[in-house]
Design goal:
Blueprint (H helix, E strand, L loop, with lengths): L9 H12 L7 E5 L4 H12 L3 E4 L6 H11 L1 E6 L11 E5 L2 E5 L12 E5 L7 E7 H14 L7 E4 L6 H14 L2 E4 L6 H10 L4 E4 L1 H10 L9 E4 L6 H11 L3 E7 L6 E6 L13 E2 L4 E6 L7 E6 L6 E5 L8 E3 L2 E10 L5 E6 L3 E4 L2 E4 H9 L4 E10 L5 E9 L9 H9 L10 E6 L2 H6 L2
């Protein structure tokens, strides 16, 4: 077993043997599509104990998307509680307990090595890409995160974010197991009533929410957030006025703003907002112990600088099809170019200014526009696809999709038909705000042949 794995139950050991009996080779990649539950963690550790490489995906992902990811990454199998038996082009199907498993045509060589794991990139690098880490690096990153927020062995930690997000898996679930915390697994979907009930029923002391969740609670019943010992925020930027409101609401109790990205393992920095002046509420704090950051000019004349992160917890390599950002994120040993524009003050506090890569963040979901364009361009009679970013006055982002279609084709090109076709390829959160359809011209045809 990789060193540093939290103690596993006998269930995990038997699951590891079962995976081996299915023919899993050391280093084979397994895609696990489960909702938040104990079974997810048991299967995750079971694959690790069999020498496999686990990767977590959404539990209700389209079969076409699963096939694409499995092919791009060279997966051995796909596992889920509800798995279509006819759409995955599997060699065979089997079960391990409640988990239904599609065993795929084995790749010539395993995709990874024993002791490695894959974290999916949540849309920042496309829909079929991930980051490969040593499992020990993920645990180290979680250890640094819990140290930064003062989480201790006596805490009871609530996980409400989906564990296929690297933030929830590393910084919450795995780090809590390593700390010996009591771990309560909830949602998604997030609901205020369910969240309040979990806080009260289990005497939760530590909870992490995304800015989307924070805004929802503040608009509905802010008192829900007053009892926690530690509240942390991650996944996207939170407006300074809302940070101020949280600090005031919690009356001296701990409030932490965090920054990270999957490629870094994932957490990078933390701001103890309750202990800082209001002038720093727009900051994401100081880099974690053992993490070195630096700023490098983008070189486009804008004066912007990109954040580089050097740490033992950054990814080893990418896997799958990378889109919307460069494949050479690893610019030096253990050093990642984040694709994010930052500033830094004299005391080392980091300030996020915006993204440099080709994706947007909408309602807490990161969307790769490069991947959307590629998938849309593959629709019948579509000659080209373009995306147009819309920036709203409140700082939120959205996008429209422009399709150029072959006007000579005898097929309907209305927006509802195209939206229906896209819904079979994109997740609901990835769908464009609007679709604009235009006949292709001669130049379109020449460019995209």
């Amino acid at each position: 077993l990789p060193s540093g794995i939290p103690p596993c139950s006998p269930d995990c050991e038997s699951l590891g043997r079962a995976w081996k009996q299915l023919g899993l080779r050391p280093g084979d990649l397994v895609l696990l599509c489960l909702p938040n539950c104990k079974e997810l963690l048991h299967q995750y550790f079971g694959v690790l104990m069999a020498g496999g490489v686990p990767a977590l995906l959404p539990p209700l992902m389209h079969a076409a998307r699963l096939r694409e990811i499995a092919t791009a990454m060279g997966a051995f199998a796909i596992g889920g509680l509800r798995l279509s038996t006819g759409d995955l082009e599997a060699e065979s199907y089997d079960s391990i307990g409640p988990l239904r498993i599609a065993i795929l045509k084995p790749p010539p060589e395993p995709a990874g090595a024993p002791g490695e794991v894959v974290l999916m990139t949540s849309g920042t690098s496309g829909v079929a890409s991930g980051c490969v880490f040593d499992f020990e690096a993920i645990l180290l990153n979680g250890e640094r995160h819990v140290k930064a927020i003062g989480q201790g062995a006596s805490d009871t930690v609530l996980v409400t974010l989906p564990m296929f997000f690297s933030f929830a898996l590393s910084a919450q679930a795995l780090s809590s197991l390593a700390c010996g915390n009591r771990l309560i697994i909830s949602g998604p979907p997030f609901s205020l009533g369910g969240y309040r009930k979990a806080l009260e029923d289990y005497s939760i002391t530590v909870s992490s929410l995304t800015p989307v969740g924070i805004r929802s609670v503040l608009q509905t019943d802010a008192s829900v957030l007053t009892g926690l010992r530690v509240l942390s925020v991650g996944g996207d930027a939170l407006e300074p006025d809302l940070v101020a409101r949280l600090v005031e609401l919690r009356k001296g109790k701990e409030v932490y703003m965090t920054y990270g990205l999957t490629q870094a393992g994932p957490r990078v920095s933390t701001l103890a907002a309750h202990a800082e002046p209001s002038s720093r509420y727009s900051s994401v704090g100081l880099a974690h112990e053992g993490t070195t950051v630096s700023l490098h000019p983008v070189g486009d004349g804008s004066g912007r600088k990109q954040l580089y992160v050097n740490s033992a917890t950054v990814m080893k390599r990418t896997i799958g099809r990378v889109e919307g950002r460069t494949k050479n994120d690893l610019v030096a040993p253990r050093t990642i170019a984040t694709g994010d524009a930052f500033d830094q003050d004299e005391e080392g506090y980091l300030y996020f200014l915006g993204r440099l890569s080709d994706f947007i963040s909408r309602k807490g979901e990161k969307i790769s526009l490069a991947a959307v364009r590629r998938l849309a361009a593959g629709l019948p009679h579509v000659v080209s696809a373009k995306t147009h970013i819309i920036k709203h006055g409140d700082g939120t982002e959205d996008y429209d999709l422009e399709l150029r279609v072959d006007a000579s084709a005898h097929a309907p090109h209305d927006k509802s038909n195209m939206r229906g076709l896209l819904s079979g390829l994109l997740q609901r959160a990835e769908m464009p705000r609007a679709i604009h359809i235009e006949p292709a011209n001669e130049m379109d045809g020449q460019r995209y042949k």
